[in-house]
Specification:
It is rod-shaped and about 90 Å long. It is built from 1 helix and no strands. By secondary structure, the chain is mainly α. The chain has one domain.
């Protein structure tokens, strides 16, 4: 019985550590996705500002 309990304990520990690793992995991917979206948003704002400045320059001439 003790041998079987040890095996089950090892299997449960492996499952728990795998779950922890997997959730950490998802967290890392989510963080990268948010950073990438933030980067794209900043680029969009920069492009928009350049466009507005160009329009205002042309309009003021």
């Amino acid at each position: 019985m003790n041998f079987l309990e040890e095996k089950l304990n090892k299997i449960m520990k492996a499952i728990v550590s795998f779950k922890r690793y997997f959730s950490l992995d998802k967290f890392i991917y989510r963080t990268y996705a948010l950073l990438f979206i933030d980067f794209l948003w900043q680029q969009m704002i920069l492009i928009e500002n350049k466009f507005i400045n160009k329009v205002l320059d042309n309009w003021s001439k």
